Amino acid sequence: MKIDEGNVFEMMRLVLPEHRGAMSRYHNTKDRRTKPTLSQHEWEEMSYVISDAIDSASFVRLTLFGPIENEVCEGVPAMYAGELHLITDGGRRRIPVERLISVTGNDLHNW
After folding, report:
1. How confident is the model at residue 95 (pLDDT cuts 50, 70, 90)?
2. Exposed, middle or buried, 63 (CB in 10 Å: 0-12/13-18/19+)?
3. pLDDT tens column, 15-71
4. Taking the CB of residue 40, how many other CB atoms lie within 10 A of it?
């Protein structure tokens, strides 16, 4: 059978291992997104909502940036050892502030 007759295994034999690795890296990175740049005002507004929720122990919804899709976390924020944590029904989770892109405040859930 000739290569141009549709024999996939025969065609793949011509791809060098370096090229196969490069193709794999390309397919893994082509769908990645870049993190949006937040203004100083947006950071201050998110900081205000979080600090208000910490003081009143109220519920917040945080959106964390992800290279493929965003992650949404819900719970009561708290500070432990100088880091932001979110207390949920499943326990406590550290929130990476560098991935934070959105915060919505109380009136979402009754604790």
Report:
1. very high
2. middle
3. 677 877 887 777 777 777 888 899 999 999 999 999 999 999 999 999 999 888 899
4. 7
**Which SS3 state, helix, strand or coil, does residue 56 take?**
helix
Tokens of 10: 């025969």
- Identify any residues that bridge with 84 across adjacent strands, giving them in sequence order: 79
The answer to whether residues 46 and 87 belong to one domain is yes
Q: Is the separation of the CB atoms in 58 and 74 below 8 Å? A: no
94 and 63 part of one domain: yes
Cβ-contact 86, 75 below 8 angstroms: yes
Q: Is the residue at 110 inside a domain?
A: no
Query: Domain tally for the chain?
Result: 2
pLDDT at residue 26, rounded to an integer: 78
Question: How far is the CA of 10 from the CAs of 13, 15, 81, in angstroms?
Answer: 5, 10, 58
